Structure to design on (1241 residues):
């Protein structure tokens, strides 16, 4: 009888054990897809905000024109932590990533194709800033962590500007 | 086998010698106290003729042969075999079974089993172990009592969470054991509020852990299933062990039993920091208060590097008088009132007891009334409990009311219905904030409370005429008045909790039975966070509401088959379970109010921000247990379970959600198989092998977009920085456990040894990845962690006479949890958690692991040392900063020993519990901050000539360097401020070892008293104490500490903790 009970339970489970699981594990707290306008606004605003901080606040702190009253070691030239300024590398890549998602949305959904132009301009603008500051940087394989590429190859600056898909490409 | 054959022979003999039968009656007594025992079973050997002793210990048996034997059993006592011997009145004395391990224990699925059958380690505490010296937090009462269990109390006094782990912390993500009450899993979560890591917004508040709500007075027993083999049947969440709570039930015999107990205790601070009392507020010996904002001399800071105290100096201070033009007098700190008028200088004096006077005497009053009884077809118990605590922390309290009911009903012999429910309402007007920052009063009183501060002067905390608008304080730059925080800026909560279950069992025939049950744990909690105008973090006040709900539903169906074929016994259970869990939390907040003192969101003067969070999970399972025995002396148990967890599904697929885990365990009773020397009364060996999976939280398998700071009130979104893993696998633990249980001299000496070795692989790891991939972290399965340890229980009854007995038990445990493997992508160490001051990366203690390292390793920075271990001092006499992270130590103890004792002399009973934790370190923020602040006694020595730092100075070129002792003196203030600097944790680390007198009780049980109308039984008065005394290297606080960072606990860090309490009380209990 045990066997039969187990068999019945297994059978039931085969049919029902994973019912609705896809829906249960869909995150209700954060969107899986967002409107392109929300991404575009983020890229423009965040890039502007971060670079303005780098240019003015961080620059003035480094030059000792400003000082922070408390807890900020950046003005004592402790440059290891990018959160205090001095290293726009993560800012550039995060915004390039959001911009890339925007670009893909524009290219895959004809109704959103109006966003392709702005996304391409921002891509060129941010990539130029990146390679102008740092020289050779990951570009052709960059931003593809979602596809499993977590150690993207560095490209030389000339290719970043001139190759197909490059800034001028 | 021998024993069985013997009984058979006797049975036959009894049959042959058939004689006239007669009715007999008798009395069952405790052999030591001569108290009647209620509920003992009396069976005429070899027959089904049986009786149960009643409330007076009496029983009747019909038609008993005059030469028959009676077998008398009672839980906790040794079985007695008594010859009837032609008597018609028999008095039977039972001897208490001193080795409690031999008792029946409750195991997985609520199955009561004789512990001798178990092939794995289970320890059980009975209700008295929990309720004799009560704590407001059930988890805290487990401390020191069970080998392998580590309990640490929280930092915000009575009502804060206690952390519990069993056999180390082998998972990188989840190490909480599962709590089960009467077969129903209940939540032991601690849910924190939404906070801001920076020095702004609300700080973390600990509203207690879920299992805190379980009422100690309703507990009949607690079993601790330590390893995964004991736990395999509770599924994935039991991978870290199970705490199995069984509540009290009604009696089996008729009649009403009323029991009442009342306990009252007073609490005092356990350990306060030891301060210096020679120097007051200021820097470089200079201080004068003008506005507390820097307008005076060093009056924006509150270091105690100021002038000497008690030296006859007069200085204007915050509590010095100011005479206004109209002749009225206000205080120096009433800045908004006097507008900068001159402050009259007053004596600059010490206040050695200022913090001691700030804490008050706390009280806890608990009353419990319970009714229980039985009727022809069942039993019931109803219990009401009221607990009221006033904390030693001013303005803080905790109240809890519990109603619980337990009902069993047997409508026919083949049906049994059981139900137990508890409803609990827990409230507090204020739970103090955790961590470093202005919302925690230890920030302004300990770290930055200058030694010239008269805390009493802060009691009147409004500036006159500006009540509700502007607080009065000793400093307006960084700090709030502590009374203002605790009385006005309150974090209140009101929690409603209901958990319980209903089960129906049907016996089909002698082999088959079927059982269906459903259990529920439901929690609804409302929290409010009020912040008044002029708070340091909220100049225009603030208000937040947080609503939390949690519901877990478990439904089970089980089929049980039991049989005996010759020498073999079988017991098979097969079943299925569905678990549905929903958890929600929503915090709504505004960081400015329109009208002061009105706390609702309608009064918001800034946008209302919402932080909603919904969580849903379902696990479907099937399981089977097969138990076999051979001659009742070799036992084998095989279990298997398959789970389907929704947390492993992705929004697109549910193909990857199934996982199976088996276990096998065996127990062999050597003392029943071999003839062992008479000194050995019992010997058993056991072994088990088990696997268990540990799944994950919902929504880890898919990416999402995260709302960012709005731009000109327009929303913005960005992709999450973590690459989700849509092929996430559950963690898998494979554990082996070996043990032996040997008892000597009629069980008066017993020894139980356990060795275990568990490997947890497929750890769920957030791997740091290059940001050029577009992401910061990637969730992977990988790594392997080995947890290995020994546990020992040693019990002895050195004295056992009717008047005097002494029972003693020692438990010992040692665990190391080592990382054997990490994914290759990790270069160096993996960060598991951290504790930091605000959002400052430099002021961070890291929990990091590397291959070969132990879980619990703490990393931080210090000052440069040479190869000899001496500090290298620079040419100016100062330490040299070394910003490379170094291992400070590990927070886990090397071993834990608990020693409990029970002495009884006639009606007096004395018990105490010592808890010894050896090893482990604690990084202290109190030492760092109050050291830099010059508040602690370590900084009292301030010679005029300065201090020469102990260390060496480097001379010569690289390769030819020489180290000579440092001789350069630096000012004492400079020295101490550098030595304790919070940017470098190494000097602020303590050895966390301690020996603690954790529990103490002395009680007297009165002989039965009563009148014709009413009998009072078991009248008992006890004096008890908890957390009484500790030996420790740490002078400033309780060595038992737990910090909070964000939404999690951080062990090994003391983060501006409040004083814990020492409690001493009186308890009266009686039965009617």
């Amino acid at each position: 009888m045990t066997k039969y009970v187990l068999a019945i339970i297994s059978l039931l489970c085969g049919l029902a054990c994973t019912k609705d699981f896809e829906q249960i594990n869909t995150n209700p707290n954060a969107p899986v897809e967002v409107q392109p306008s929300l991404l575009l606004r983020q890229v423009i605003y965040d890039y502007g905000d971060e670079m303005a901080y780098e240019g003015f606040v961080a620059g003035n702190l480094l030059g000792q024109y400003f000082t922070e009253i408390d807890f900020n070691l950046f003005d004592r030239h402790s440059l290891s932590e990018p959160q205090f300024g001095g290293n726009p590398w993560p800012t550039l890549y995060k915004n390039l990533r959001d911009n890339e998602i925007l670009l893909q949305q524009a290219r895959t959904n004809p109704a959103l194709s109006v966003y392709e132009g702005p996304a391409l301009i921002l891509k060129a603008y941010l990539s130029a800033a990146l390679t102008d500051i740092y020289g050779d940087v990951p570009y052709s394989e960059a931003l593809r962590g979602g596809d499993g590429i977590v150690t993207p190859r560095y490209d030389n600056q000339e290719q970043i500007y001139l190759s197909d898909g490059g800034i001028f490409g | 086998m021998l024993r069985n054959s013997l009984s058979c022979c006797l049975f036959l003999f009894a049959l042959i010698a058939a004689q006239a039968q007669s009715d007999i009656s008798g009395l069952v007594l405790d052999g030591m106290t001569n108290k009647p025992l209620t509920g003992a079973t009396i069976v005429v050997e070899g027959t089904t003729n049986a009786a149960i002793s009643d409330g007076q210990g009496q029983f009747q048996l019909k038609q008993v042969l005059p030469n028959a034997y009676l077998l008398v059993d009672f839980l906790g006592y040794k079985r007695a075999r008594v010859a009837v011997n032609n008597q018609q009145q028999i008095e039977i004395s039972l001897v208490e079974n001193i080795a409690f391990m031999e008792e029946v224990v409750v195991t997985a699925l609520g199955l009561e089993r004789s512990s001798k059958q178990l092939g794995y380690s289970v320890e059980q505490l009975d209700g008295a172990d929990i309720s004799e010296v009560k704590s407001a937090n059930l988890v805290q009462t487990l401390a020191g009592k069970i080998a392998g269990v580590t309990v640490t109390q929280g930092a915000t006094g009575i009502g804060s969470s206690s952390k519990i782990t069993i056999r180390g912390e082998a998972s990188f993500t989840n190490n909480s054991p599962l709590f089960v009450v009467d077969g129903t899993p209940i939540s032991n979560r601690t849910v924190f509020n939404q906070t801001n890591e920076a020095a702004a917004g609300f700080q973390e508040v600990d509203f207690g852990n879920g299992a805190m709500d379980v009422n100690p007075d309703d507990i009949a027993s607690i079993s601790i299933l330590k390893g995964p083999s004991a736990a395999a049947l509770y599924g994935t969440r039991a991978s870290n062990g199970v705490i199995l709570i069984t509540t009290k039930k009604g009696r089996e015999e008729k009649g009403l039993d009323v029991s009442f107990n009342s306990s009252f205790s007073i609490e005092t601070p356990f350990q306060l920091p030891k301060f210096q009392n020679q120097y007051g507020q200021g820097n470089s010996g200079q201080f004068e208060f003008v506005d507390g904002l820097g307008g005076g001399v060093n009056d924006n800071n509150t270091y105690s590097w100021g002038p000497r105290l008690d030296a006859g100096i007069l200085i204007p201070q915050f509590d010095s008088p100011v005479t206004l033009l109209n002749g009225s007098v206000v205080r120096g700190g009433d800045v908004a009132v006097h507008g900068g008028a001159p402050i009259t200088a007053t004596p600059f004096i010490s206040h050695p007891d200022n913090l001691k006077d700030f804490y008050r005497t706390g009280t806890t009053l608990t009353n419990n009334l319970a009714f229980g009884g039985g009727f022809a077809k069942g039993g019931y118990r109803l219990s009401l409990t009221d607990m009221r605590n006033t904390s030693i922390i001013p303005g803080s309290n905790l109240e809890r009311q519990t109603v619980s009911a337990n009902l069993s009903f047997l409508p026919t012999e083949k049906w049994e219905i059981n139900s137990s429910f508890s409803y609990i309402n827990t409230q507090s007007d204020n739970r103090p904030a955790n961590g470093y920052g202005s919302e925690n009063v230890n920030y302004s009183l300990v770290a930055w409370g200058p030694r010239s501060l008269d805390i009493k002067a802060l009691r009147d905390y409004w500036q006159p005429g500006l009540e509700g608008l502007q607080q009065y304080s000793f400093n307006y730059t960084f700090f709030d008045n502590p009374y203002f925080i605790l009385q006005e800026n309150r974090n209140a909560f009101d929690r409603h909790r209901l958990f319980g279950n209903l089960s129906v069992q049907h016996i089909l025939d002698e082999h088959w039975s079927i059982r269906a049950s459903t259990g529920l744990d439901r929690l609804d909690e409302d929290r409010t966070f009020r912040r008044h105008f002029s708070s340091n973090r909220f100049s225009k006040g603030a208000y937040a509401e947080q609503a939390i709900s949690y519901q877990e539903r478990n439904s089970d169906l089980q089929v049980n088959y039991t049989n005996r074929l010759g020498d073999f016994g079988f017991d098979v259970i097969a079943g299925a379970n569905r678990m549905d869990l929903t958890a929600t939390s929503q915090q709504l907040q505004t960081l400015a109010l329109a009208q002061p003192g009105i706390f609702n969101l309608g009064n918001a003067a800034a946008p209302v921000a919402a932080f909603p969070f919904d969580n849903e999970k379902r696990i479907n399972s099937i399981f089977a247990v097969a138990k076999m025995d051979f001659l009742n002396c070799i036992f084998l148990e095989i279990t298997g379970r398959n789970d389907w967890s929704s947390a492993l599904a992705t929004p697109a697929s549910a193909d990857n959600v199934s996982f199976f885990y088996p276990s096998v365990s065996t127990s062999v009773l050597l003392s029943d198989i071999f003839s062992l020397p008479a000194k050995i009364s019992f010997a058993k060996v056991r072994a088990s092998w088990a696997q268990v999976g540990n799944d994950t939280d919902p929504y880890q398998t898919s990416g999402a977009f995260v709302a960012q700071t709005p731009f000109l009130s327009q929303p913005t979104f960005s992709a999450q920085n973590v690459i989700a893993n849509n092929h996430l696998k559950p963690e898998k633990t494979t554990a082996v456990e070996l043990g032996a249980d040997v008892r000597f001299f009629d069980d008066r000496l017993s020894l139980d040894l356990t060795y275990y070795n568990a490997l947890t692989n497929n750890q769920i790891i957030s791997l740091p990845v290059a940001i050029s991939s577009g992401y910061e972290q990637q969730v992977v399965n990988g790594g392997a962690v080995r947890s290995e340890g020994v546990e020992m229980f040693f019990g002895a009854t050195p004295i056992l006479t009717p008047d005097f007995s002494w029972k003693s038990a020692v438990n010992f445990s040692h665990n190391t949890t080592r990382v054997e493997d990490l994914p290759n992508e990790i270069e160096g160490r993996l960060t598991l958690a951290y504790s930091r001051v605000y959002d400052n990366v430099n002021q961070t203690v890291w929990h990091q692991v590397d291959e070969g390292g132990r879980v619990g390793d703490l990393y931080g920075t210090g000052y440069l040392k040479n190869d000899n271990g001496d500090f290298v001092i620079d040419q100016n006499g100062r330490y040299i900063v070394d910003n490379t992270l170094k291992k400070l130590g590990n927070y886990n103890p090397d071993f834990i020993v608990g020693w409990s004792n029970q002495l009884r002399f006639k009606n007096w009973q004395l018990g105490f519990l010592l808890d010894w934790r050896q090893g482990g370190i604690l990084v202290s923020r109190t030492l760092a901050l109050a050291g830099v602040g010059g508040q602690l006694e370590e900084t009292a020595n301030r010679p005029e000539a300065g201090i020469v730092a102990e260390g060496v100075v480097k001379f010569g070129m690289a390769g030819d360097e020489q180290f000579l002792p440092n001789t350069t003196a630096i000012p004492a203030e400079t020295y101490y401020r550098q030595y304790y600097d919070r940017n470098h944790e190494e000097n602020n680390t303590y050895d966390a070892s301690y020996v603690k007198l954790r529990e103490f009780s002395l009680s007297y049980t009165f002989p039965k008293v009563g009148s014709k109308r009413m009998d009072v039984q078991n009248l008992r008065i006890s004096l008890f104490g908890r957390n009484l005394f500790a030996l420790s290297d740490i002078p400033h606080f309780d060595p038992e500490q737990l910090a909070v960072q964000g939404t999690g606990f951080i062990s090994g860090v003391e983060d501006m903790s409040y004083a814990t309490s020492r409690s001493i009380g009186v308890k009266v209990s009686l039965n009617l």
Remarks:
- Strands of chain A lie at 137-138, 154-155.
- Residues 36-62 of chain A form the longest helix (27 residues).
